[in-house]
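Lab notebook, bench 4. The sequencing result for the construct came back, and we need a structural model before the next group meeting so we can plan mutations. Quick request posted to the team channel:

Model the 3D structure of this chain.
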Amino acid sequence: MQHNRTINIPISISSDNPSSERPPFIEMIRAQTRGYPDLIKKAAQAQQRAKVYPDPDETNNVFTLFTGNRWIELGEREPEPKMLFGEFWHQNELCILFADTNAGKSVLAVQIGNSITRHKPIGPFAVQAKNAVVLYVDFELSAKQFHLRYSNAAGGYEFSDSFYRAQLNQKKEMPADSKTYDQYIMFAIIDRIRQIKATVLIIDNITCMRSGTESANVALSLMKDLKSIKNDYHLSVLVLAHTPKRNPARPVTPDDLQGSKLLINFADSAFAIGKSKTQPGTSYLKQIKQRSTAEKYGADNVCLARITKPGNFLQFEFTDNGNERDHLYRPNPHDREHLGQQIAELSKQGMSQRRISIELKVPLTTVNRLMQVEQVENRPGEEQHVPN
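Done. Here's the predicted structure in token form:
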């Protein structure tokens, strides 16, 4: 005798569902109709996992929607972003400056902050913003180290009263939990922004803002917080960051920024300091990312500079422009021989070619070629032939 079973399943079918797959409740009906208990269970689980969409009224204002022509009209009314450091950094941008350790990031950042408050350009780089108050959050230098950089036997440099420097109070007890510490630091910076009514924020450096920036989730969270501060307080933000050990024979790229790529993806602009390998003591600036201007200082037109201290102010002195490739490391036969020996030694230790490539910061093709050379040279009783 058959029993009629009633299936009580809430059905809510949207005619505009773009998915080509059947909704979970349809699969449940099909499974129950065919009498497959396992399929019924799976269909029920799928229904529980199905996305629950919020009320449309709650998401109505998440996006501002206009036609392309209307956006052009609105954009035309907004003022052109003013330069803070030539084409490298504009007003209302979140910008990243990155370089190797001891390349002079802090020296240039203080120089930029000082330039903005005095409305005085650095070399050829225009500063168009007026009446700017700069907050320089310094996680790097102590008071004594800062003093030594900006003083000499005759006395200390006189900064504008619009230039403020903040450093951590070592006597203040900080939260032990990393997440709580990160929020604590962020709110403390906001407090100082509001106190002095800053319009420019410089953070030296990003690794002290939040631990684990190599994680995509952490990087995304940090950049969202910085964007939020920038928008809420109408700021221009410059954040300093490091590069990990890199191959000096290769040009500087976005991949050289330490941490997750989301850091640079969410930035409005970015530029880097590179060290010349052919002219000791010379550095160069290179645009890495820009949205408010066309690229002017790319690989074929980097800005050459030297760090000097003509009086009581440590600074970059910009001397000329050049091509980046003229300042990259150029290997010689002796270096090649040494590199081959390093590769052979690591190979004997059981490292794969890919691992050796990462360890020595050289291309995988170079590792493969030099290992072939090593094998040919050590092969007894055969004519030696070096692969091209």
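The longest strand covers residues 315-322.
Will bring this to the meeting.
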